[in-house]
Amino acid sequence: MRGPPLASEAISCRGVAKVWAAGTARAHEALRDIDLTVGPGEFVVFLGPSGCGKSTLLYLIAGLEAVSGGELLAFGAPVTGPSPERSLIFQETSLLPWLSVWQNVSFGLSLKGVPEAERRSIARTALQRVGLAEAFDKRPDELSGGMRQRVAVARALAMRPKVLLMDEPFAALDVQTRQKMQDFLLDVWRDSGASVLFVTHHIDEAVALADRVVVFTARPGRIKTIVRNDLARPRDPFSPGAEAMRRHLTELLRDEVDRAFAEQEALV
Amino acid sequence: MAVDLARAAVPHIRPRLPFGQRLALPDGFVPLLQRTGWMLVSVGCFASLWELLWAFGIADAKLLPPPHIFLGNLVEQARFFNTAQRWQIGTGMNAGPSPAMAVLITVLASTGRVLAGLALAATLSILVGVAIRYVVLVERLTLPTITLLAPVSPIAWLPVAIFMFGIGNAPAIFMVFIALFFTMVLSTIHQIDGVNRNYINVARTMGASKRQIYARVIVPAILPGLLAVLRLNLFGAWMVVLVAEATGVGYGLGQVIMLARNTFNPSLVFFTITLIGLLGFAFDLLFRLVQRRMLYWLPRDAGSSLGL
Question: What separation in angstroms does the CA of A85 have from each of A11, A18, A165, B205, B278?
Answer without folding.
Answer: 12, 23, 10, 9, 58
